[in-house]
Design goal:
Pfam families: PHO4 (PF01384). Its main location: membrane. With about 500 residues, the chain is mainly α. Helices cover about 80% and strands about 0% of the residues.
C-alpha cells in the first residue's frame, strides 16, 4: 500500500515536472519565434549584399552598392510585413482563406507581379519630388537615396510594430523629400507634386470607403433584405462577379502590365468591359448550380462570394507586386546606375537581380511578419464576412482606375483600409437606421442607454485614430528621419 501511494506521489511529481517543461517549451517558442523571424531577415539582408558584391566586387563604388542592396532588402521586408496585409486581410477576416493559404497565395502572386510585370522604368528621384540637378554631385545623390531608403524602411518598420498599416509609397516620398531638403534646401522640392500627394491622403481612403459602402448597400438592398435571398443572389451575384472581373481586367491592363505592354485608359476600359461581360455569362450557370439546396438565410450567401473573394485577393497581390516593388528597389536601382556611370539625372531601368531582391524581400517579409497586420485589417477594425470583404476588394480595383483617370496619385494602402472603414461605418449607419425604423413601428420597445450604444459601435475607434494619426505623420516622419540620416552620412563621408 505504501509502495502504491509512493508510486502515486512519484507520478504526481512527474506530471508537475512535465507540465513545467511543457510551459517552459511554450514560453521558449513564444520568445524564439520573433527571434527566428529577425534571424532569417538578417540572413536575407546579408544574402542581398553578397549578391550585389558578386556583380560589383568590393571596390569603393561596389561597397556603396552592397550597402544599398542591404537597405533595399530591408525595405522590401517591411513592405511585405505591412503593405501586403491590405490585400489579404479582408479575405482572412471573412474566413474565406486561412492565414497559411493567404500567405501562400500572396507570396506566389506578389512575386509573379514583381518579376513579370514589375520594374517599369522609374525616375531617379521617386515621383519627381525633387530636381535631380539640385543634388550637385553623384556622391550627394547617392547619400540622399541611401538616407531615403533607410528612413522609409525604418518608418514602415515602426508602423508595423505599433500595428498601423501605412503607405510605403508615402514613406519613400517622405524619405526622398527629407533627403532632398537636407542636401539642397527647400527650393529643390517640387511643392505642387507634394500638394497632390497630400491631397491623396484624403481622396484615397474617402473614395475607397464610399465605393465599398455603395456596393455593400447594393448587396444589402438587392440580396440580403429580399424575401427570397437565394433567388436574388442567382440574379445579382453573377453581375457583381462580372463587375469585379471587369474592374480587375482594366486595373491589371492599366497598372499591372506596363512592363509588357503600354495600354491607355480607353483601351483598358474596353478590355474590362469585354472581360466583365464574359465572366458574367460564365457565372450565371455556375452560381445557379452552387446555390442549389442552399437555405434561404444570410449564412448561405457567404458560400457564393467565397471563390470570387479569393481570386480578387490573388489579383490584388499580383498588381501590388507589379507596382510597389519599385518602392523597395527604385532608389536602389538609382544608386546602382549612379555608382556605375556617375549619371543621376536620367530615368533608370531596374536590373533583374535588383528585382529579385525586391520580390523575395516582399515575400519573406509577408511570411515572417505579415500576420499581425493581416489580422488588424481583416478583423480588428470591423467584423468582415465574404460579402463585406468582397466590397473592399472591388473598391480597391475601381478606386485605382478612377484615380488614374483623374490623374491623382493614390495609395493602395489608404484605399483598402479606407474601404474597410467605409464598410464598417455603413454598417453602423444601416443598423442605426433599422433601429429607428423598428422604434417607430414599436414605440414601447426598450432602448439602449447612450453608453451601451457607444459600446455597440461596429468600428473600433481606437484603431481608427491610430491609423489616421500614422497616415498624417508618415511623410513628415520619414522626411525628418531621412534628413537626419543624410546629415550623419554626409558628415561621416565628408
Amino acid at each position: 500500500m505504501t509502495d502504491e501511494s509512493g508510486d502515486a506521489r512519484h507520478l504526481e511529481t512527474l506530471d508537475r515536472d512535465l507540465a513545467r517543461f511543457s510551459n517552459l517549451e511554450t514560453a521558449t517558442n513564444m520568445v524564439a519565434r520573433p527571434m527566428v523571424g529577425i534571424g532569417i531577415s538578417f540572413l536575407f539582408i546579408m544574402l542581398a549584399g553578397l549578391t550585389a558584391s558578386l556583380f560589383f566586387g568590393l571596390t569603393n563604388n561596389g561597397i556603396i552598392v552592397v550597402v544599398a542592396a542591404c537597405l533595399g532588402a530591408y525595405m522590401a521586408l517591411n513592405i511585405g510585413a505591412n503593405d501586403v496585409a491590405n490585400n489579404m486581410g479582408p479575405a482572412v477576416g471573412a474566413n474565406a482563406l486561412s492565414m497559411g493559404a493567404a500567405i501562400a497565395i500572396a507570396v506566389i502572386f506578389e512575386s509573379a507581379g514583381a518579376l513579370i510585370a514589375g520594374g517599369d522604368v522609374v525616375s531617379t528621384i521617386a515621383k519627381g519630388i525633387i530636381a535631380p540637378e539640385s543634388m550637385g554631385t553623384s556622391a550627394t545623390f547617392v547619400w540622399a537615396m541611401m538616407a531615403a531608403l533607410l528612413s522609409a524602411a525604418l518608418w514602415v518598420n515602426i508602423a508595423t510594430w505599433i500595428g498601423a498599416p501605412v503607405s510605403t509609397t508615402h514613406s519613400v516620398v517622405g524619405g526622398v523629400m527629407g533627403a532632398g531638403i537636407a542636401a539642397a534646401g527647400f527650393a529643390a522640392v517640387s511643392w505642387p507634386t507634394m500638394g497632390t500627394i497630400a491631397a491623396s491622403w484624403v481622396i484615397s481612403p474617402v473614395l475607397g470607403g464610399v465605393i465599398a459602402a455603395a456596393f455593400l448597400a447594393l448587396i444589402k438592398s438587392r440580396i440580403i433584405y429580399r424575401e427570397d435571398k437565394i433567388a436574388a443572389a442567382r440574379t445579382w451575384v453573377p453581375i457583381l462577379v462580372g463587375i469585379m472581373a471587369g474592374a480587375f481586367a482594366a486595373y491589371l491592363a492599366l497598372k499591372g502590365l506596363k512592363k509588357i505592354i503600354k495600354i491607355d485608359m480607353p483601351t483598358a476600359l474596353i478590355i474590362g468591359a469585354i472581360m466583365g461581360a464574359a465572366i458574367w455569362a460564365v457565372m450565371i450557370p455556375v452560381i445557379r448550380k452552387q446555390s442549389e439546396g442552399l437555405e434561404n438565410r444570410n449564412k448561405s450567401l457567404k458560400v457564393l462570394f467565397g471563390i470570387p473573394l479569393v481570386v480578387s485577393a490573388a489579383l490584388l497581390s499580383f498588381a501590388h507586386g507589379a507596382n510597389d516593388v519599385a518602392n523597395a528597389v527604385g532608389p536602389l536601382a538609382a544608386i546602382v546606375q549612379a555608382s556605375q556611370s556617375g549619371d543621376f539625372t536620367q530615368a533608370v531601368s531596374i536590373p533583374f537581380w535588383v528585382m529579385i531582391i525586391g520580390a523575395f524581400g516582399i515575400s519573406f517579409g509577408l511570411f515572417l511578419f505579415g500576420p499581425k497586420l493581416i489580422r488588424m485589417v481583416g478583423s480588428q477594425i470591423t467584423k468582415l464576412n465574404p460579402m463585406r470583404a468582397y466590397c473592399v476588394a472591388l473598391s480597391a480595383a475601381i478606386t485605382v482606375i478612377i484615380a488614374s483617370w483623374l490623374g491623382l496619385p493614390v495609395s493602395s494602402t489608404h484605399i483598402a483600409v479606407g474601404a474597410v472603414f467605409g464598410v464598417g461605418f455603413f454598417r453602423e449607419w444601416d443598423a442605426e437606421r433599422r433601429i429607428k425604423k423598428a422604434r417607430l413601428a414599436m414605440p414601447d420597445r426598450p432602448q439602449y442607454a447612450p453608453e451601451e450604444r457607444r459600446r455597440r459601435k461596429l468600428v473600433r475607434r481606437s484603431h481608427f485614430m491610430t491609423i489616421i494619426a500614422a497616415w498624417l505623420i508618415t511623410v513628415p516622419a520619414a522626411a525628418v528621419l531621412s534628413g537626419g540620416i543624410f546629415f550623419l552620412i554626409n558628415t561621416a563621408m565628408g
